[in-house]
Amino acid sequence: MAGWDSRNGRGPLAPRGPANPAAAFRHLCRSSPWKWQSLRFEYLDRPLTRSAGSPMASPEGLVRAWLRRPGALRLETADGLVIASTTGINDSRGGFYVSSTRKTWLLPPHLVTPVYDDDGLVRRRPEAAYGEPSFGNGRFAAALDPVELAGNSPVPLEFPNANAVELGPVTEVDHEGRAALETTVSPNPSYRPADPAAPLCRPGHTLLRIDAGTGVCVASRWLDAPGAGDDAAGYGHWIRILGVDEYMLDDLFLAESMNLTDVRRHISWDVPAE
After folding, report:
1. 162, 190 in Cβ contact below 8 A?
2. Helix, strand or coil for residue 237?
């Protein structure tokens, strides 16, 4: 794919953002909570491959996901077996819970307003009740809101190593039919992953892709991992986005459907033989 246009700092597939591609990438990493409320996607706990083919061609380890913010998640295997589903999305909170800590009073991100740049990407995030449902390890949740790659706000001064991660050249790529920004990053001492055991960015160099429409980190590959030359080895993940902001009923996330009986269907009664 073509790189950034030197005349205006952005190409035809890139989100509108600052002419500085590094700033646009970081602003996009902060924007996920305000770009979507529901997401349907497929997830592989497998790194981005060096070959042109998509790892989604092999269903081994594939997880299909339906996510509705805040906190509603349904997961199925490639064969349709439900492996996880939230059950308390409508639970009420008692008085002791509400008054216990200041954090319980924070609003969901979509109910507060961030500081946007001139082109609609988030420059500075406000205090809010952030957090995504997790599965397997913390990288699943971090990929849905990759703010750990940029921090909640720009650094005061652009000194070397002042940002959470250092960015290589930012290019535009096609990821599973959607526009994305790709770059190689390396962590600085100030990098604080949401889950230290499963960061998006490992020591050394990590190749990352951020979806331009949602701000989700759709692919990663640790380039310095042992055996990184083998597509089947290494550390990383892959996401294929199938639907954004689709309407999702509560029943999708419940262990048992709460639908009323369909009176149009015949109900059989078993009468014991005398």
Report:
1. yes
2. strand
Query: Other CB atoms closer than 10 Å to residue 83's CB: what's the count?
Result: 11
What amino acid is encoded at 13 in this protein?
L
Q: How many CB atoms lie within 10 A of CB 80?
A: 7
Helical (H) or strand (E) element with 243: strand 236-244
- Based on C-alpha coordinates, what's the Rg of the chain? 21
Reduced to 3 states (helix: H, G, I; strand: E, B; else coil), residue 142 is helix
Residue 213 has pLDDT above 90, yes or no: yes
Kindly report the pTM of this predicted structure: 0.80
Token digits of residue 91? 């639970």
Average pLDDT of span 18-23: 78
The tens digit of pLDDT for each residue in 60-115 reads 788 999 999 988 999 999 888 888 888 655 555 555 444 556 666 788 898 999 99
Q: How many CB atoms lie within 10 A of CB 108?
A: 15
Give the distance, in angstroms, between the CA of residue 260 and the centroid of all CA atoms in the same chain. 34
Yes or no: say if 167 and 208 are a contact pair by the CB < 8 Å rule.
Answer: no
Supply the pLDDT for residue 156: 82
Burial track 48-67 (b if 16+ CB lie within 10 A, e otherwise): bbeeeebbbeeeeebbbbbb
Q: Collapsing DSSP states into helix, strand and coil, what is residue 15?
A: coil
Measured CA to CA, the distance from residue 24 to residue 58 in angstroms comes to: 33
| AA letter at 227 | G
Contact indicator for 161, 188 with CB cutoff of 8 Å: yes
Q: Distance between CA atoms of 109 and 270, rounded to whole angstroms?
A: 52
Contact between 68 and 74 (Cβ < 8 Å): no
